[in-house]
Amino acid sequence: MEQETVSKFLENVGELRMGFDLFTKNQKLSNVFITLGALGILGIHHDKRTDKVICFPIPPPSAGTKKIVSVSGAGDCFNSGFLASQLYGHGFEQSVQIGRECAKESLLTVNAVPESLNCIGEKLMENLVEHVHTEHCRH
């Protein structure tokens, strides 16, 4: 690991400790996400089916060839995308990816919550309707 990456990681030790403490003290939690700025996010997930707890890095979203305009709101957009995806019935991994996509959209605009997130919400709703229709037709 590069020295700069180690230094940035160590800057977040307090947040990491708070996240782990929160998770261990509240047995009802399934997920905790700790934002680490340019390092991305550290996720903690309790799979209730297997009773296993996993801790994993979530890399920061890539802006590709586009320029990052502002980091304000990226963490909130990740959380919103993840939660919305979960509420629409998507799996954990897909919800993390949708959260990353929402965070990426936030990085590319001066608005903390970009207008483009409306399209992601509409797409989630379309997928939910399709999923419910498919499940309904199977019975």
Automatic annotation (TrEMBL):
One of its GO terms (biological process) is phosphate-containing compound metabolic process. It holds the Pfam family PfkB. GO terms for molecular function: kinase activity. Residues 27-112 form the Carbohydrate kinase PfkB domain. Keywords: Kinase, Transferase. The keyword Transferase applies. It comes from Panagrolaimus davidi. This is Carbohydrate kinase PfkB domain-containing protein. SUPFAM superfamilies: Ribokinase-like.
